[in-house]
Specification:
The protein is of the alpha+beta class and about 100 residues long. The chain contains four helices and two strands.
Length: about 100
Amino acid sequence: MSNEEWYDAEIAPVLLDLAKRCEERGMSFIASVEYAPDERGGTYALNKDAGLAMHMLHICSRTAPNVDAYAMALVKHFRAKGIGHGGSIILSRIIPDETGASQ
């Protein structure tokens, strides 16, 4: 049995149960397991009030190791939530302002 098969059979169901239990209490849950280099499984349950750090972890766990995919997904999240990026040197260079020009 491969690590992935073992993870799917033994670990993923337990993580799903934990995620559901947390969700019932209004808590967000993120678990990411690497069963082989760059091969991961994950269980995620983000409540509607999840904080930015939880969203960042969730985005990272879905896009790693592709930094560009992470940045693009983070920008998409920021735009969807109306989150400003003025405090970030990097994001202020890649997120266009209202005119479409980079800042």
